[in-house]
């Protein structure tokens, strides 16, 4: 009892993502990376289950895997090739900018003035 909550991780571990390596009745053991000066150490901490939650970072990857499997299956049935790699966003299309009757303003750096 008292001011320290049971199984609460230290403040340096709040919001960190880790891997569960041990499960007990009320807590789990987690491997978390901690930066100590110039190096990153894999620390093993025990935290009660009230203080942890599942990471959503893997959800988008698993969703993409399912979609790719579906695309592969459809392409195999059709006998075609399908692109599964993610592509970077293409450059924007060329377009004209309307000035609405105003003259474009030229921007340039202020000339350097030496003051002695």
UniProtKB/TrEMBL annotation:
Source species: Marmota monax
Q: Which GO terms describe its biological process?
A: translation
What is stated as this protein's family in its record?
Belongs to the eukaryotic ribosomal protein eL21 family.
Query: Gene Ontology terms, cellular component aspect?
Result: ribonucleoprotein complex; ribosome
Q: Which InterPro entries match?
A: Ribosomal_eL21, Ribosomal_eL21_sf, Translation_prot_SH3-like_sf
Entry keywords, A to Z: Ribonucleoprotein, Ribosomal protein
The identity of this protein, by name, is 60S ribosomal protein L21
Taxonomic lineage from the root: Eukaryota, Metazoa, Chordata, Craniata, Vertebrata
Feature: compositional bias, Basic and acidic residues: 66-79, 92-101
Q: Which Pfam families match?
A: Ribosomal_L21e
MF terms in GO: structural constituent of ribosome
Q: Does the keyword Ribosomal protein apply?
A: yes
Positions of region (Disordered): 66-101
Q: Please tell me whether the keyword Ribonucleoprotein is annotated for this protein.
A: yes
């Amino acid at each position: 009892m008292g001011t320290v909550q049971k199984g609460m991780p230290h403040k340096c571990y709040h919001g960190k993502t880790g891997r569960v390596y041990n499960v007990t009745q009320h807590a789990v053991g987690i491997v978390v990376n901690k930066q100590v000066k110039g190096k990153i150490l894999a620390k093993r901490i025990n935290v009660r289950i009230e203080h942890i939650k599942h990471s959503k970072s893997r959800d988008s990857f698993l969703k993409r895997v399912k979609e790719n499997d579906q695309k592969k299956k459809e392409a195999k049935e059709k006998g075609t090739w399908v692109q599964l790699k993610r592509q970077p966003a293409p450059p924007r299309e060329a377009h004209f900018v309307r000035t609405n009757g105003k003259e474009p303003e030229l921007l340039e750096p202020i000339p350097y003035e030496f003051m002695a």
